[in-house]
Design a protein that fits this description.
The two termini are about 45 Å apart. The strands form five sheets. Strands 1, 6, 7, 8, 9, 10 and 11 form a seven-stranded antiparallel beta sheet that branches. Helix 8 crosses helix 13 and helix 14 runs parallel beside helix 16. This protein has 23 helices and 31 strands. The radius of gyration is 32 Å and the shape is flat. Helix 14 links the parallel strand 23 and strand 24. The chain is α/β, with parallel strands linked by helices and about 725 residues long. The relative contact order is 0.07.
C-alpha cells in the first residue's frame, strides 16, 4: 500500500488490517512513541537499511495478513552483520510465501520492562482502552486494566496505578522511572483514534518496550478494521419528569382486583390500603360486585374519577386490549405486574414489544412487565408483592430482580435505612435502569442511589449517565451474573484479554460507582452514605472497649488500604489524664473496659477534634446494654434476695448512656464533619444499623462487626477520592 494513501485507506476499510509499518505510522500521528524503522521491499533493501540503522537490528516480515509473527518465525532478533540480515530475510520470505509484502528493519531495542496497550470495541459499551504488563506472557499474567474512551488525565493516572506490577514503572533495579508523559500520550492517542476512526475495531501495541532511561517505544503494533457500529437499537429514553410523577399517583386503579387471598390482585391492593396511602383507590374486574367493601368496576372506563396509575395483574394475553381503555380514560401510567412476556421466550418477547409499542403510541408510561411493584414511603405508597414497609428516606432503589429488591427493602425496614422510592424494574420493556438514573439525578429528595442489576440495555448511555451523576450523588451497585464470558474472537492480546465482567468493573471505577460484593453490602453502604459525612481521607482513629477488637480492626484497615496513624504526643497526654496507667498509649485507643460514660465521651471528642485522622471507628461502646441486661437477668435468677431496684437502676443507666452517646456521635459529626463508624458490642434482632437524631444533619450508624465498618469507610474514602480527582480534572486543575 502507498504510504501517502494511508489516511484514505483507513477511512474506507471495513475489514482486514494494516501491516505493522502502516499501523505505526497511524499511531505516530496520534502521539504514540514508536521505534524508528525502515520498510524494505526486498533482501537487498533490507541489508542496506540495516547498515544505515546500525547493528544489531531486528528483521520482521511485513504483510497485512501476517499476524502473530513471532510464533510463525517471522521475527529475527539481534542480527549483527549484513550476512545474518540477508539470511534472515530469505528465511522469512520462505516462511511467509505470497503473504509477504516486504521487510521491516528496526534497531534492537534494549529494555527489561515490557508493557501492552490497546483498543477494542465492546459490543455494549463501545470503545475501550487497555493497558498493562505486556510481552509474550501478557495473557498468562493478565495484569491489565481498562477504561472506556474518551479518557481523561484522571482515567490514565488510575489505569497506571491499578496494575499489580506498578512498582516496575518507577525506578527499578538501576533503570529509571518510566516516562509517564509518553505513556499518557500513548493512551490518549488510542482514545482519540477510537473516536476519530469508528471503523477501527482493534489496536494492539505489544510490547511497549521501556528502556533503561525510562523512554518507551512501540516496537510491534496491529491495527485491525471491522464494520462500523450499527445504529443503536436502544429503547427511546423516558422523560425523567414523567417518571418522577409516576411515583406520586393521586389515584390508583387495580385492574384484575381479586377477593381471593394470595392472588396478586388481592395482595397488592391489600398492602397499599393497609399502610395509609392517601389517594383514591379503585378496583376493576369484569365480574363487578364488591371486594373488601369496595365497589368493583367492570372496566376502567366505568371509574367515576380520574386515575393516575393502573396496577395491572390480568393475564398477558389480555393486556393489549386494555391499552385503548387506559388511553380513553386518560390514565398515563401502567404498572404491569403480569408475567408471561419476554422472560418466557420468543412468543412472549413479540407480545411484549407489541404491548410496549401500543402503550408508547397511546402516551402511557409502563414499568414492567414481570415486576414486583413500586414503593414511595414519602406518600405511604407500598405496592409490592412482599409486604415490606421501610421508612421514608433519601436512598432510591431499583432492582432488576423483584425478589432481591423486596428482600433489600425488608432489610432496610429492619435496620432503619430510609428509602426515597423503590421499583422492581422487571423486563424493562419501556423504562430501563438508565431512565431511572436520569430521573434520580434531577430528584432533589434522592441523595443516594442503590441498584441491583444483572444487565444494562444501553451500555454507552449507562456509562455517560453514571459518570455524570456520580459527581453529584453516590451510586451503590451490586451486579448479578458476574461471570467471565471471555473467548472473544480477536486477533490480538487486547481482544483476548477482555471480558464482560472486567469491562463492567472498569465502568464502575471510571464513573465512581460504589460496588457491593454481597446483598447486605448494599444496605451497609446505603446506611453509611445516607447517614454519615464523607471522610476527607483514609486515616482511621480506632477506639475500643477491649484490645483484641482493636488489633483485628487495625489488620482490616491495612487490608482495605486504610491508615492507622500514630497518636500525637498532645492527644496521648490528654488521654493519660483520664485513662488508667496501663492504657495502650497508641492507636487503637483501648479504654480498657472503662465503664465511666464521661471517659468514652471525652476520648471520642478528642479523636474527632484531632486533625490526624479522617474518621473514627468506635468499637463496643454501643450494644453493651444487651450484655448488661443478661448479667442482670442472671443475678436476679441466681440471687433472689439482691435488691431489684439497684439492678433495674444499673440496667437503666446503661440504656440512658447509649441513647446519650448515640445523640452525641451525631452532634460531633455535625460539628467536625468527620464520620464515626460504630460497631456494636453485641447485636440482637432489636438492634438497628441507623439511629436518626432529631435536629442533626447526620445519623449514628452502628454495624454488628468490624469488617462491615471498615469496608464502609474504605468505600466512602474511595468515593471521596473519585470526587476530588474528577472535579479537579473537569476544572483543568
Amino acid at each position: 500500500m502507498d504510504m501517502a494513501k494511508l489516511p484514505d485507506a483507513i477511512e474506507r476499510s471495513e475489514s482486514g488490517a494494516l501491516n505493522e509499518y502502516q499501523s505505526k505510522l497511524l499511531l505516530k500521528a496520534y502521539g504514540v512513541p514508536v521505534v524508528d524503522e525502515v520498510a524494505a521491499a526486498d533482501v537487498a533493501e533490507a541489508v542496506d537499511a540495516a547498515r544505515k540503522t546500525g547493528f544489531p537490528v531486528v528483521l520482521k516480515g511485513l504483510g497485512q495478513t501476517l499476524l502473530h509473527k513471532t510464533e510463525k518465525h517471522l521475527v529475527h532478533l539481534n542480527l549483527n552483520t549484513p550476512e545474518t540480515v540477508a539470511a534472515a530475510a530469505r528465511a522469512i520470505a520462505a516462511e511467509a510465501g505470497a503473504a509477504l509484502e516486504g521487510f521491516l528493519v528496526q534497531p534492537q531495542m534494549q529494555g527489561r520492562r515490557e508493557l501492552v496497550a490497546g483498543l477494542f470495541r465492546d459490543e455494549l459499551f463501545g470503545p475501550v482502552i487497555m493497558f498493562g504488563i505486556g510481552g509474550v506472557f501478557a495473557e498468562a499474567f493478565r495484569d491489565i486494566t481498562f477504561r472506556l474512551a474518551p479518557l481523561t488525565e484522571t482515567d490514565i493516572d488510575q489505569m497506571i496505578g491499578e496494575i499489580r506490577a506498578r512498582k516496575i514503572l518507577g525506578s527499578f533495579r538501576g533503570e529509571k522511572a518510566i516516562n509517564r508523559r509518553q505513556l499518557a500520550r500513548t493512551l490518549l492517542g488510542l482514545s482519540r483514534i477510537a473516536l476519530d476512526h469508528p471503523n477501527i475495531s482493534e489496536i494492539d501495541i505489544n510490547p511497549l518496550i521501556v528502556t533503561d532511561t525510562g523512554e518507551i517505544r512501540a516496537v510491534d503494533a496491529l491495527v485491525a478494521f471491522g464494520p462500523r457500529a450499527a445504529a443503536s437499537k436502544a429503547k427511546p429514553s423516558v422523560d425523567p419528569m414523567l417518571l418522577g410523577r409516576y411515583f406520586h399517583p393521586r389515584s390508583i386503579a387495580f385492574v384484575g382486583a381479586s377477593a381471593r387471598f394470595g392472588k396478586w390482585g388481592h395482595n397488592l391492593p391489600s398492602t397499599t390500603i393497609a399502610n395509609g396511602y392517601g389517594g383514591d383507590i379503585y378496583f376493576v374486574n369484569p365480574r363487578g360486585g364488591r371486594i373488601a367493601g369496595r365497589e368493583v368496576y367492570p372496566s376502567v372506563l366505568d371509574i367515576p374519577g380520574p386515575v393516575d396509575l393502573a396496577v395491572v395483574t390480568i393475564p398477558a394475553a389480555a393486556v393489549m386490549s386494555l391499552i385503548p381503555q387506559l388511553q380513553d380514560k386518560g390514565i398515563p401510567n401502567m404498572l404491569l405486574i403480569t408475567s408471561g412476556f419476554s422472560e418466557m421466550g420468543e412468543d412472549g418477547r413479540r407480545l411484549e414489544e407489541a404491548v410496549t409499542a401500543a402503550a408508547r403510541a397511546a402516551g402511557i408510561l409502563v414499568i414492567g412487565p414481570n415486576t414486583m411493584g413500586i414503593s414511595n414511603p414519602h406518600i405511604r405508597l407500598y405496592c409490592t408483592g412482599s409486604h415490606v414497609w421501610p421508612d421514608a428516606g433519601d436512598t432510591a432503589v431499583v432492582a432488576q430482580s423483584g425478589n432481591m429488591g423486596t428482600q433489600l427493602l425488608a432489610f432496610a425496614e429492619n435496620q432503619g435505612i430510609g428509602i426515597r422510592c423503590f421499583s422492581g424494574s422487571g423486563n424493562e420493556a419501556m423504562v430501563t435502569v438508565e431512565d431511572y438514573l436520569d430521573a434520580f439525578e434531577i430528584d432533589t429528595a434522592t441523595r443516594n442511589i442503590m441498584l441491583y442489576i444483572e444487565s444494562v440495555k444501553n451500555g454507552r448511555r449507562f456509562f455517560e449517565s453514571t459518570r455524570r451523576i456520580g459527581l453529584k450523588k453516590p451510586i451503590i451497585l451490586m451486579k448479578g451474573g458476574r461471570t467471565e464470558v471471555g473467548g472473544r474472537a480477536a486477533a490480538s492480546h487486547t481482544g483476548a484479554l477482555s471480558s464482560d465482567n472486567r469491562i463492567f468493573e472498569a465502568v464502575c471505577r471510571q464513573t465512581g460507582i460504589v460496588t457491593a460484593d454481597f446483598p447486605m453490602d448494599l444496605l451497609d453502604l446505603a446506611a453509611a452514605f445516607s447517614s454519615l459525612p464523607l471522610p476527607r481521607g483514609r486515616r482511621a482513629a480506632i477506639m475500643t472497649f477491649g484490645g483484641g477488637w482493636g488489633v483485628v480492626t487495625s489488620d482490616l484497615c491495612a487490608e482495605f488500604d486504610l491508615e492507622v496513624p500514630f497518636l500525637s504526643d498532645e492527644i496521648i497526654g490528654k488521654f493519660d489524664d483520664i485513662l488508667p496507667d496501663y492504657w495502650s498509649r497508641s492507636n487503637p485507643v483501648d479504654i480498657v473496659g472503662e465503664y465511666d460514660p464521661n471517659v468514652a465521651m471525652t476520648v471520642l471528642t478528642e479523636l474527632m477534634k484531632w486533625d490526624g485522622c479522617d474518621a473514627v471507628i468506635n468499637l463496643g461502646l454501643i450494644g453493651r446494654k444487651i450484655l448488661f441486661s443478661r448479667i442482670v437477668q442472671s443475678v436476679k435468677k441466681s440471687d433472689p434476695a439482691y435488691d431489684r431496684a439497684v439492678l433495674d437502676s444499673l440496667e437503666q443507666n446503661i440504656v440512658n448512656f447509649e441513647k446519650t452517646y448515640i445523640n452525641s456521635i451525631a452532634e460531633l459529626m455535625g460539628v467536625y464533619r468527620k464520620p464515626v463508624f460504630g460497631v456494636s458490642f453485641a447485636f440482637d434482632q432489636e438492634e438497628r444499623t441507623v439511629y436518626p437524631v432529631a435536629g442533626q444533619p447526620y445519623k449514628s450508624v452502628v454495624y454488628p462487626t468490624p469488617e462491615k465498618a471498615v469496608k464502609a469507610f474504605a468505600k466512602m474514602a474511595r468515593y471521596r477520592e473519585f470526587l476530588d480527582l474528577n472535579r479537579t480534572d473537569a476544572s483543568g486543575g
